[in-house]
Specification:
CATH class of the largest domain: Alpha Beta
Order of helices and strands: EEEHEEEHEHEHHHHH
Structural class: alpha/beta
Largest sheet: 6 strands, mixed
Strand order of the largest sheet: 1-5-4-7-3-8
CATH architecture of the largest domain: 3-Layer(aba) Sandwich
Number of strands: 8
Number of domains: 2
Radius of gyration: 17 Å
Length: about 230
């Protein structure tokens, strides 16, 4: 695939010599790809990402994958608290209010396999900004097609959506931790989970929420080995 280099000055070495083990997806929340490029490459603004994908499918490389881009901010995934050092950040040109166009999704699907292969990143560690920072972020948002990525082996999706286990909040919290969500109250975690896996669900936690999160937690538990932190 064609990738256009558009270097950002906002990057540094990965702390502790760690290698990328997570991919974090974002939306830009800006009016255009050019506006996002201007911001992500502004030397006076300490923000960047490794890649930006335009709505037309054009891919820009802003920071080399071996370097630490500044895209994630405060948050965590499993034991990882310095997400920037452990991740590759991909910005998608979208305000969060529109569906992600076919050329953009196709470009993402072309870009991700190489990243996952180069760094031995499993699909379960392709996450959203809202997954690792649920109290402050909502991207890539309810319009993003996570199931499509999962069907292509580039992310994960629950294998069942019905359960006789009721709506046990303690069980939900336990599964959320097992999958990787940051510690937090049940309301925040349920909102983050639904935004990705049940974007149009509402109301209190129910049996479907519990069955789905238990399924992904059992099949894709977060790596809590010391070297993953």
């Amino acid at each position: 695939m064609k990738i256009t280099d558009h270097p950002s000055a906002s990057f540094g070495p990965r702390r502790g010599g760690v290698l990328p083990s997570i991919v974090v997806l974002h939306y830009t929340a800006m009016v255009s790809a050019q506006a996002a490029l201007d911001r992500l490459c502004d030397p006076d603004i300490d923000v960047s990402a490794h890649y930006l994908i335009g709505r037309d499918g054009e891919v820009f490389r802003l920071v080399d994958e071996a370097q630490r881009a500044w895209h994630a901010g405060a948050g965590s995934w499993g034991p990882v608290t310095d997400v920037n050092s452990h991740s590759i950040g991909i910005e998608l040109d979208n305000t969060g209010a529109q569906p992600f166009p076919e050329p953009q999704m196709a470009a993402l699907e072309s870009l991700l396999p190489g990243i996952l292969s180069r760094w031995a990143i499993p699909p379960a560690r392709v996450i959203g900004h809202s997954d690792m920072a649920p109290t402050r972020k909502s991207d890539p948002g309810v319009k993003f097609d996570w199931r499509r990525l999962a069907l292509g082996g580039l992310s994960v999706w629950p294998g069942r959506d019905l359960s006789d286990s009721g709506s046990n909040e303690q069980a939900f919290q336990s599964a959320a931790t097992q999958f990787g969500y940051p510690e937090g109250d049940q309301k925040t975690r349920l909102s983050a989970f639904r935004q990705r896996f049940r974007p149009y669900a509402s109301g209190p936690i129910n049996a479907t929420d519990l069955a789905m999160i238990q399924d992904i937690a059992e099949r894709f538990p977060v790596d809590r080995s010391p070297e993953s932190a």
